[in-house]
Each structure stands twice: as C-alpha cells, then as structure tokens.
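Deliverable D5.2: sample structural annotation.
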Amino acid sequence: MLKTHVVEEQEEQIRKQVRSLTDEQRQTYYKLAATKIKDPDTYATLNYIIMAGLHHFYLGRIGRGLLNIAVFSAGILMVYLQFIEVGIALILGIVVFELYELFRSQIIVKHYNNIASQKILHDIVADQNPKVD
C-alpha cells in the first residue's frame, strides 16, 4: 500500500536531484519528462469509466486493464446467462476495487511519476558518466 508521505518525500528528493543537474541535463530531463509524466486528473477521469479499465492502460499496466475488462465482461455474461449472483458479485468486485483506485488516484499517479522521473534521472546521469572498460 502506498503511503502518501513516503511518495511525497520521494517526489521532493527528485526535485532536489533535478535542481542539482546542469542546465543542459535539466533541459534534457524536462524534455523527456514531458513525454513520460502522467496527469492524475486524466487517470481519475478514465477511472470514472469503471467497467473499461482505461486508467490501467493510461499508466501502461496492460495486464490489469485486460483483467479489468475480462472480469467485468464475465460479470455481464453471468448475469445474461442467468447466474445473477455470480455476475453481480464479479461486477461489484470490480466496482469496489476501482472505487478504491479512484480515491487514491493522486497518489497512484504521483508514485508512477516518481518511478518515471527516477529512471529519466538515472539515464541522464549514466549518459554523462560513460563506463571505462
């Protein structure tokens, strides 16, 4: 479970690391970050469409997105095939899980962005310090 204060501390550490970069490195960082950083509001908006699982695809979590679609579709199919209790249980399970993610969307996306930012920083620093063989 993501802890808000831990994610925010990581975010502050990343800001400090970015400030310590050279101007050229910082420019490269911001250029790369513009393509990798995700918007929490977009994630939350996509999460409102609970049955589709589009918010998982937005963060590149293809497996979760497909699982979301499969379970929700199975729930609808079960209701259609007269296994109403099973179908409703599957649909409610997805709704409860997705509501949890909706309420935590800000921290989930901040965590994702921290990981993306750390990778960008690592790549920038690694490019500036070539390995000697």
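Annotation notes: The helical segments are 4-19, 23-36, 40-48, 54-58, 62-80, 84-103, 105-128. The two ends are 41 Å apart (CA to CA).
The annotation will be released with the project's public dataset once the embargo ends.
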